[in-house]
Amino acid sequence: MPRDLHDVPNQSAAIECKPAGCDSEDEKRSWRRWLVLGFIFAVTVINFIDRQTLSVLAPVLRASYHLSNEAYGRIVAALQFGMMAGEFPMGWLMDRVGARIGLAAAVLWWSAATGCQAFTHSGFQLGATRLWMGTGEAGNFSGGMKAISRFFTQEERTLAIGIFNSGTMIGATLAPPLIVFLLERYGFRIAFTIPALLGLLWVPVWWHFYPGHRPVLSSDGVLKAPLAELLKQSSTWAVMTCRFLIGPVMQFYWYWIPSYLYSARHMSIVQIGVIAWLPFFLGDIGGILGGYVAGWLQRRNLKIYTVRRITMYGSSILCLSSLIVPYLRDAVASLFMIGFALMANTFLVANMFGAVTDLFPQESVGRATGLTGVSGGLSGLLFPLVTGVLVDNFSYRPAFIVVGLMPLLGTLALFILGSKYRSAS
């Protein structure tokens, strides 16, 4: 039996591209990789500022466009539908033309949609632009993963993913003060325009610093491992199932915790505004720590299968701490426990995305990430409905139980369904 994934046929690291005169090993040792990571982190921050603009402006938009709760809900769902629809096409684009062109195109596409929201005059128009925006934003993760798989060695990739993914929380944390400032000074239409300009300014800088490439194609000029072949692989279903179960956990913390603190813990809006950032700060630490620990274990000559087992099972067990949250009497203690659970979850997520680079050669990473995004998007649409039913008919307790168990179930699915991990043990 092979001792490591690198001994399994077709699992050695492939090369996305090779610019003229540039050796791939030199790329992975060059300072340039950290610059590339900085750009990916920055555009992820911009992405989540764009994404949160709607929720921050919601009271003004609902009054201006005379939106009911149902109409506003459809606009929120439009972004999720757009992302789910765009995940695989964007992943295909990254594999076909590389991250330089692919990610630049994605950012231009979603930034244009963000800016067009400033010109809407109805709920339908706003929903249409959010749908458009979602199809482009789907390229953020597949493009980021594509670039990381090119520029970072296997032992560095999980750390790079953790840093890149931390941009999601930082962007969403920066969005409220920025958008409120723009709203108060210039009105809601400028509040859509400025975030769009941030993306448009990012593109030429990315284009200048990210080196060109030649994609890895088969002899007939098409991408290796077409969709039908990918869907035949157990690794594909392993990572898709894993993200289906783990993906909605972050959304629960993001969208439901303020409501939980207000309705169940009886915190005021002011109190929530002052301290609700704490769990997400801990989440940022967890993502970076998850990448660092994975690399630290690899540098001690542990096989990648063993590293993923330690990091993913360990962090998914720590995610069970969310089961304790509803039973804590003190509101501040419950907030710290939420932060601990969120830190464990982001630790896990960094290694979940790292598993994609373990199981797929570089020429398939974009599409594999896109397929996980499709499954994560589907659960992202379904899980909020389940959460609403549980909260309305019971309490937050069963919701916290489900959220605590899903990371462990996702980890189990990855190792049970992922035959290449099993053969590497």
UniProtKB/TrEMBL annotation:
GO MF: hexuronate transmembrane transporter activity
Subcellular localization, as worded in the UniProt entry: Membrane
Alphabetical list of Gene3D superfamilies matching this protein: MFS general substrate transporter like domains
Protein name per UniProt: Hexuronate transporter
Native source species: Edaphobacter acidisoli
SUPFAM superfamilies per record: MFS general substrate transporter (SSF103473)
Keywords: Membrane, Transmembrane, Transmembrane helix
Coiled-coil intervals: none
Membrane topology: Multi-pass membrane protein
